[in-house]
UniProtKB/TrEMBL annotation:
Function: Catalyzes the phosphorylation of hydroxymethylpyrimidine phosphate (HMP-P) to HMP-PP, and of HMP to HMP-P.
Pathway linked to the protein: Cofactor biosynthesis; thiamine diphosphate biosynthesis; 4-amino-2-methyl-5-diphosphomethylpyrimidine from 5-amino-1-(5-phospho-D-ribosyl)imidazole: step 3/3
Keyword Oxidoreductase assigned: no
Encoding gene, per UniProt annotation: thiD
Name of the protein this chain belongs to: Bifunctional hydroxymethylpyrimidine kinase/phosphomethylpyrimidine kinase
Reaction equations catalysed: 4-amino-2-methyl-5-(phosphooxymethyl)pyrimidine + ATP = 4-amino-2-methyl-5-(diphosphooxymethyl)pyrimidine + ADP; 4-amino-5-hydroxymethyl-2-methylpyrimidine + ATP = 4-amino-2-methyl-5-(phosphooxymethyl)pyrimidine + ADP + H(+)
Annotated source species: Actinomycetospora endophytica
Length: 278
């Protein structure tokens, strides 16, 4: 899809995620990343978070049938070229999302690529997923995922593997494949070297079709990385919506997030967001 041509419809990416009133993370970050990557962003809001740069102070879940209705009504009109999930909040929202996605062909049982970012908590530690919903992520979401993009904490929660090096990253990927994920991106950005010092590079491993691809970028030490994970998964989703291969879409995502962290900005008294740049 040539997103820029006048009068032509761009590809459509759908974010199934929570809002952030501070405009840093969640669905707000997703839509910015979609726009920067040349696709139209549609949204199915799962939860409203009361949030600023200091953290999340309250969460209001959207009724599951309203979440499902947003997915159906977008897919039935403009079509969805790729979808991603972020904050899903509860087990019943996950079940509603899965049912609606199955109906409209989102996920590996259909034809629309489906990126699952298994968001469990915010950087500041606020839970964004109920404890009893983790199992639904394992049994309902992962078997439908074209790609799952966990960080190291989410890997520990989902499969109990502590990733400390490449061997354990491969072990984590295998465990997530065993739960049904077609492809796994192990995000090594928060990995500390065994010396306890931060690594010089962010190394992400993509495991797909029996092969492991390595994506490296210089490690940028920036305090303002709010919404970074959401933005990476969204840029990958945008690439898939535009018809890229998974490996190319992850490459696009990695370049996008490196630029976005490099140009992140202070905002408020806490953590500012990454900056979506074309
Ligand atoms: N708020 C919402 C709605 C999110 O979806 C997320 C992450 O996915 C966050 C906050 C946390 O973002 P961060 O951990 O980058 O601060």
């Amino acid at each position: 899809a040539d997103a820029g041509r006048r009068g032509e419809s761009p590809a459509v990416a759908l974010s199934i995620a929570g809002t952030d009133s501070g405009g840093g993370a969640g669905m707000t970050a997703d839509v910015r990343a979609f726009a920067a990557c040349g696709v139209h962003g549609a949204v199915a809001v799962t939860a409203v978070t009361v949030q600023n740069s200091l953290g999340v102070s309250d969460v209001h879940e959207v009724p599951p049938d309203v979440v499902a209705a947003q997915i159906r009504t977008v897919a039935g009109d403009m079509g969805v070229d790729a979808a991603k999930t972020g904050m899903l909040a509860t087990r019943s929202i996950i079940e509603a999302v899965v049912a609606a996605c199955d109906e409209v062909g989102i996920g590996v049982t259909g034809s629309t690529p489906f990126v699952v970012d298994p968001v469990a908590a915010s950087m500041s530690g606020s839970p964004l997923l109920a404890d009893d919903a983790l199992d639904a992520v394992r049994t309902e979401l992962l078997p439908r995922a074209t790609l799952v993009t966990p960080n190291l904490d989410e890997i520990a929660l989902l499969v109990g593997v502590k990733v400390v090096d490449e061997a354990s990253a491969r072990e984590a990927a295998a465990a997530l494949h065993a739960l049904g994920a077609a492809a796994v991106l192990v995000k090594g950005g928060h990995l500390e070297a065994s010396s306890g010092r931060p690594q010089q590079e962010c190394v992400d491993l993509l495991s797909v079709d029996g092969e492991v691809h390595e994506f490296r970028s210089p490690r940028l030490d920036r305090p303002h990385t709010h919404g970074g994970g959401d933005s990476l998964a969204s840029a990958i989703t945008a690439g898939l919506a535009r018809g890229m291969s998974l490996v190319d879409a992850v490459g696009l995502g990695k370049e996008f997030i490196t630029r976005a962290v490099e140009h992140s900005y202070p905002l408020g008294a806490g953590h500012g967001p990454v900056r979506a740049m074309p």
